[in-house]
Structures
1.
Amino acid sequence: MNIVVAVKQIPDLQQIRIRDRRPVLDYVPCVLGDIDKSALEAAVELKESVQGRVIVVSAGNGEIEDTVKEALAAGGDEAVLVEDDTLADADSSVVAKVLAAAIRKIDDVGVILFGEGSADNYSGRVVSAVAADLGYPQVGYAKQIEVDGPLARVTRSLEDSDEIIEVPLPAVISVVSEIKEPRIPSVTSILKARKKPKAIYRLDDLGIEIPSGKNITTISNLAPVSERKGIVVKSVDELVKILKSERRLER
Amino acid sequence: MEFKLTKEQQLIQSVARDYAEKAIAPLIEEIVEKNEVPDEIIDGLKDLDLFALPISDEYGGAGAGYASYVLAEEQLSRICPGVAVIVSVNNVGAAAMSIFGTEEQKKKYLPMGTTGSGVFSFAFTEPGTGSDPKQITATADRDGDYYVLNATKRFITNSSYEGPIIVFARDTETGHINGYIVDKFCEGYSISEPWKKMGVRGAPLYDVYLKDVKIPKDNILGGPGQGFWILKVAMALGKIGISSIFLGAMLAAYEEGLTYATAKTHRGAPIAKFQAIQMAIADMFMKYEAARWMAYRIGYLADNAQDKGDILKDSAAAKIFITETAIDVARIALNIHGSYGLMEDYKISRVWKDVIFGSQVEGVSHLLKVLIAGEILKG
């Protein structure tokens, strides 16, 4: 049984600067998001119990082949990529359709892992759409996964409690970052990543219809304005009182 | 011409950065206090193949080349120059062996400095000479199938770790300067107390004493008469390490200066709003940018040079420029801090004591300028 991990290339968030409340993306390299790396780490651990392979799936522009090396260095065994420049701006419904089509090309899929949301937009829409497209059950907020024959036992991290459920496989599971701390890959594994097998498809190869118009239009996406309140306190007690009054200590 | 890192280089850079931030940074105060790097750090670097980046994977290295080595060393040194110095000196010894060593020597010794429990040392300097091989007083007396070594070597990094040390000594029979491979802590090997040094803590320097140390006659690196060539290559590669290390220290200074300038307020505004501080920020940026591309280029040159000794002029130039610029940038960052920069609670005070090392070690600047001019005038 193979474990699929869907990953997204995003701009390196540490290198983005904000100008006029908008991100400046010039010369910012593409990387994988941290939650995707956690999903990958969970997949590598699961692989040992299911005797399968970890297959990284991603869709993006021409840089995706380079970006996915990071996932192959961190434990992915092979990659299935859909490469097309139009995918850089594609909305989530298109991406979901493309990913589902790519996953259909893989044999013996058991678990399909996603990060709970991408580290750039964090809309979390793609996971459900892929599950719906494939007709597989979907489980969210997973912080622990065990595969037991045809079932996966998933511990979900909910706001006030954990919930343990069983789901028949194949299933689409999205994980929270606490599921696994991503490893730091070794230099040798980075250098070997380029030699791992990669299947690269163009959109035309997938046999799917891509709608010409966009389903979703982003009207506004601005960085929040942060202003100092300029409150001067004279004691710790006073500071605690103000923080309590603003409910800052309850988080 | 393309000023761009490959994806692999970006990843190696971030591996070193992540490891330095996650594993080394939490221990930095202990490292500085004890002047000692915990073994778990060395083990961690070996596990990630960061310890012997340029050495061929055939012998346990990463085979990642010198451009990647420069990037990784910069990131390690940004957090702890002492750790980066241990890596650099290990690499000088291991690289000299991988270039000049016989197959038997490489198979026996290289894995110690790549994946095994050892760390390479390189012993050239003596109390009476720092950079002139002709002044070496260490002796190697041939005794049948052995050499008997007697030497006092000064300021030797990594000499307290197990593993091989390459000791430069004169063959009393032929007069040749050779690099002799000695197993540290063999009979007759001892070290002094560590020198009490002001900066680059974690990589202690010792004097090494060899008293009638007996080694097999085949333990001459590269065979008899190769000493000069080995030294030329080691000097070139050592300067790549030092350039990268003080580039990292410079980056630390730059970041500290910038952070303080945006965090410290005066009359209700960050001091970065003042033009005098803005001049300082621009100066730090300019100097760091010039230095880092010089460092990256020297890594590239080392990867593409048939004979690593051929890049000595360029690596010396990079070493002078980068180590002196690191002092400039740290001075600017210190000025931005004002009096606070003198307090040990502020990282810049430690960085200041680190950067001052660069221009004093691995050939002082004046000496290296004579070497560079000599190469240029030679035509």
2.
Amino acid sequence: MNIDAIRNGIVIDHIKAGRAMDIYKFLRLDELDCSIAIIKNASSEKMGKKDIIKIDTVLDMDLDALGYIDPNISVNIIKDGKLIEKRHVELPATLKNVIKCENPRCITSCEQEIPHIFKLTNREKGVYRCIYCESAPKQKSE
Amino acid sequence: MFELKSLIDITDLTPEEIDELIATAEDIIENPDKYREKCKYKKLATLFFEPSTRTRLSFEAAMLELGGSVIGFSESNSSSASKGESVSDTVKVVSCYADIIAMRHPKEGAPMIASMRSDVPVINAGDGGHNHPTQTLADLLTIKREKGHFDNLTIGFCGDLKFGRTVHSLINAMVRYKNVKFVFISPQELKIPDYIKTEVLDANSIQYCETSSLEHYMSELDILYMTRVQRERFFNEADYVRLKDSYVLTNEKLQSAKEDMCVLHPLPRVNEISVDVDDNPRACYFKQVKNGKYIREALILKMLGIE
């Protein structure tokens, strides 16, 4: 299958097969009017199968937060048809308004304007905790 | 030097800062006259969005004994929260009137929001089932005065270890001392949460055991921290009724305890400590109340930067 190479934009690579749409939704790519290619189940030497997203525009967004969804993905920045930067995302130290605290006892449950902020408390296990009530979100579905 | 804008969690304080607070509290106990006018012309605002008797009165008594004044409210119905005002706005307004704020709120994290918005120091006086650092300071002052040290203690926690904020705070404070061991005594449904085991106890290589028997480890304990099963922490009344009488401490059960073991309780109690135990020399829970006032005096002084 042929997908045109992009000249200026971002390629999100090494997405766990089947999770491209999660990232599409998370980055709100549906709100963009540029070309976007979602490649599902591409063959990969390292992963067997993987998903890829190609975005044909330069975005100003917090790509580090992608590390929360899938810490194994890589982000390639393309300029004038050349790869100028390859980033491996890590679990971000803080997540702001990425996930919501679901603890009904948390102050965020009743005061709507408060930002939902989570801090990484255990990098090894990928545990985040709400900075207000310290509860951890439910594990992401695999 | 004491550098703390707000006290939200007991771990906001270093062990050295806790030592400093305890030293000040002990000096207040020894020399009360020295402190009678230390907070003259200063105002403490007690913002209690949830009913409380002892914590609010303890803060108010502490400020009055330091020569300061107190403003505030004791339930959310008598504040603008009943009109729908946010915690942020309430605190922003109150910090225009007061020099320091003590705040209790049923929602976890509310005092942290307050501390982010306030121009004056905020003390967390209890946020839901989450933190209650000044109770922990009262516990620590009592332990220091009764045992003389924090190292090498075996502490039993009994009752509601799942929702008991005072238990969680005291564990967080005690894991920083040497050779401290814990015995967790609770029914299955109210066991200590897993995240405390992994992220606090295991992370600090702390020895602990869990049991459903109040008597089994009694002879090994230096401190027994009793707690009440709190109705307000349950969404389901039936669960509360089923668990509320799980453990009742009596003089008979204390027979195997060490002579110098201390029984602590954050109070109020319902029936988890028989009134007969009040006369037992091991009972320290009313001393704990008094110590709570002294340590709050020390905290107010330190947070206001008054020597």
